[in-house]
Amino acid sequence: MIKKVLLATAASALVATAASAADLPRRAAPPPVFTPVPVFTWTGFYAGLESAYTFTDNQRITTTGLTAVTAGNVQAGRRPGLVTTSQDGIANIGGTAGYNYQFTPGSGIVVGVANSIDWTDITKNRFILGAPLAGGVLPNPSQYRQSLDWLGTLTGRVGYAFDRFLVYGTGGLAYGNVFHDVNFYNPAGTLQFAGRYDDFKIGYAYGGGIEFALPTDSFLNTFAVGRYLGIKYDAITIKAEYIHYDLGSQNVLVNAIPGVGTGAYLSRFKTEGNIVRAGFNYKFGGF
User: Which InterPro entries does the record match to this protein (predicted)?
Assistant: First the structure.
């Protein structure tokens, strides 16, 4: 009898313990911590280096005479009334700096502003012989020189980013230093008229380009010069862009050399062309 009571008591205690254990919270592994993958954004300041190819096509130089005699010389073809020049050359080096803002990280609209300056150093000389004078006298030589020492652009830009790939259009201010030189000689080769302009000019520019941000694990980042100079950056970007610039027209007064010529001419130079830039930028901040 006593054994039955003890067995019943032990069974009751075992059932009660099991029931209590069932009421306790179950031990489960903690949920995994979600770490979002960083999304690239073009927002931030940037600066870099570039090289450029500059070319012009049929820049116009028109000349008019300011007296009856000089006007007659232009009309008769002894002095050229219209000359066109073409220039091209590779800029030695240039630099750029600016800021971008992207409205939505990843893919989305990007707006920004950029200032670039390139040492173009392109020059064109034109030497022209005028129509022969009556009586077999040799024609009058005329010489024009036109050059663009350097070119800068301060432009806004609007584009669309496909993650690390950016396509954009740009437009704004163009500025640079231009040089115009005119020398008219008599048939004997003596300088008869001369005029010159060498100064700063302002105009406008527009164009577009593409830019690609290299992934941080790209082997191309090993070629980033700035990393060896202690420059901290979030990304290296490579770019290519086309810009059309127009610095307007400039009148050059071509005066007679005392004792050699009389009267004067007016030559009007047009400075307009294209520049193709390629380079890289360091992008600071933005993640």
Answer: OMP-like (IPR051692), OMP/PagP_B-barrel (IPR011250)
